[in-house]
Design goal:
The structure is a single chain. By secondary structure, the protein is an alpha/beta fold. It folds into 4 domains: 7-25 and 178-326, Molybdenum Cofactor Biosythetic Enzyme, Chain A (3-Layer(aba) Sandwich), CATH 3.40.980.10; 28-47 and 156-177, no CATH class; 54-139, Molybdopterin biosynthesis moea protein, domain 3 (Molybdopterin biosynthesis moeA protein, domain 3, Beta Complex); 337-410, MoeA, C-terminal, domain IV (Beta-clip, Beta Barrel), CATH 2.40.340. The protein has 7 helices and 27 strands. The protein has helices at 10-18, 160-168, 207-217, 232-245, 262-270, 308-326, 382-386, and strands at residues 27-30, 38-39, 43-44, 54-55, 59-62, 72-80, 95-98, 110-113, 117-120, 125-128, 138-139, 150-152, 173-177, 181-187, 191-192, 203-204, 221-228, 248-252, 272-277, 280-281, 285-292, 298-304, 337-342, 354-363, 369-373, 390-394, 405-410. The strands form 7 sheets. The protein has a 6-stranded mixed beta sheet, with no helix packed on it. A hairpin with a 4-residue loop joins β9 and β10. α4 crosses α5. The longest helix has 19 residues, at 308-326. The structure holds adenosine monophosphate (AMP) and magnesium ion (MG). The site of magnesium ion has 5 residues, from loops. Magnesium ion binds at residues 187-188, 253-254, 306.
Length: 413
């Protein structure tokens, strides 16, 4: 086995990145725009939810004690729709037609669902076919949330139902950690993205298109800074503009040892960078650092490798967790990690690196997560990776045999 020197473990690389990223400043936001963001305040209910006792069913408001002997016929003395206020008190031996969500009239202590009744005499009388217990089908005021309750604290992810609860307690504007604005740019004289025919040496740009989508999928806002040619002046100008207008910068290409790796040349000069060789395959070269912008703010810069699969893997393992940290998320910052069963051999040889193989995963009838090899694993072969939905983390050593356990990060279930 070839001994590889100077490589750092992925955990150390991630620590270097995460320890230099900080949570973005809190802003007040309309909850309609805040789904997926992290709450930065306590939310205390200032009213009961529901605000009044109301019916859980469509039916008849009654007094349970009137229904000792059923069937029994009661005069229907009124009707209350959702949104209406009762205009009378229910007396002994009476019924009021009531709809789901309508306020329970004073005097009533139970609701009989319409399925247990018959409409008689054009609706003026109801025949009740079931007895009732006091409180039946009545949702009390504050049954969901009592006035004064702390419903959520800082760190809560505003999932759709959380947004619903915020609306239900009239917290229309809340303090949140905003989505990071992330500049995405690709570098390389060979890249074409205007649909024109390819001259020899040219390739179609793919990383930026992919990374813009990955940034958006992480909950951040991608800002497309285009393709920058392998030209130091142009790159410096673009990087400075990106750092002035965004919370983070993601570049792809130009971070290895090539003569035209201008990202390395420029960032080494204008930013405080750490150039890493990580003990993983793919995505060994990676750069991270802080670029101080014209307002004196230190903006994280992620220098991803140019090979498309390497770009994807380093975004997943390093940039995405950092963006999530910046947006107020707490551990786990990585994707869900599951111990899976290998259904096919996952081939590798010892080389001093952890391999992140792109695999196809799914839950089997045994309730376990199973993975199978995901096609060609070259760092330029994005097509096979594109159809994979998990990253198998294969420690240095030999292949994973059929039936063996392997840890995977699930990218999509
Ligand atoms: P680099 O890291 O710049 O040396 O690029 C490594 C490899 O990735 C080269 O084959 C590049 O042509 C390719 N590459 C770099 N950037 C992109 C991109 N944005 N889209 C597709 N391929 C790229
Ligand atoms: Mg390049």
């Amino acid at each position: 086995m070839a001994m590889v020197t100077g490589l750092i473990p992925i955990e150390d690389a991630r620590h270097i990145v995460l320890s230099q990223c900080s949570v973005l400043s809190v802003v007040a936001a309309d909850i309609a725009d805040a789904v997926g963001c992290v709450l930065a305040c306590e939310v205390v209910a200032r009213e009961d939810v529901p605000p009044f006792a109301n019916s859980a069913v469509d039916g008849y408001a009654v007094i349970a004690a009137d229904l000792v002997n059923v069937p029994c016929d009661l005069p229907v003395v009124g009707e209350i729709a959702a949104g209406a206020a009762p205009d009378r008190v229910l007396g002994r031996g009476e019924a009021i037609r009531i709809m789901t969500g309508a306020p329970v009239p004073q005097g009533a202590d139970a609701i009989v669902m319409v399925e247990n009744t018959e409409r008689l005499n054009d609706g003026h009388v109801v025949r009740i076919n079931a007895t009732a217990t006091s409180g039946q089908a009545i949702r009390d005021a504050g049954d969901d949330i009592k006035d004064g309750t702390t419903v959520f604290g800082p760190g809560t992810i505003i999932r759709p139902a959380v947004a619903g609860v915020l609306a239900s307690v009239n917290a229309r504007f809340v303090d949140i950690v905003p989505r990071a604005q992330v500049a995405v740019l690709s570098t390389g004289d060979e890249l074409i993205d205007d649909g024109s025919p390819l001259a020899l040496g040219q390739i179609r740009e793919s990383n930026k298109t992919m990374l813009v989508a990955m940034v958006a999928e992480s909950g951040a806002i991608a800002v497309d800074f285009g393709i920058v040619r392998d030209d130091e002046q142009a790159l410096e100008a673009t990087l400075r503009h990106a750092a002035d207008t965004c919370d983070a910068v993601v570049t792809s290409g130009g971070v290895s040892m090539g003569d035209y790796d201008v990202v390395k040349a420029v960032l080494s000069r204008i930013a405080d960078m750490r150039w890493m060789q990580i003990a993983i395959k793919p995505a060994k070269p990676f750069a991270f650092g802080l670029l101080t912008n014209s307002s004196g703010r230190a903006v994280p810069v992620f220098g991803l490798p140019g090979n498309p699969v390497s770009s994807l893997v380093s975004f997943e393992l390093l940039a995405r967790p950092a963006l999530r940290l910046m947006m107020g998320h707490s551990e786990p910052l990585l994707r869900p990690r599951i111990t899976a069963i290998a259904d096919t051999t996952l081939r590798r040889n010892p080389d001093g690196k952890v391999h992140y193989q792109r695999v196809h995963g799914r839950f089997g009838p045994d309730g376990r997560y199973h993975v199978s090899a995901g096609g060609p694993q070259g760092s330029h072969q994005l097509a096979a990776t594109a159809l994979a939905n998990a990253l198998a983390e294969i420690p240095d050593g030999n292949s994973v045999a059929v039936g063996d356990e392997v840890a995977v990060y699930v990218l999509a279930f």
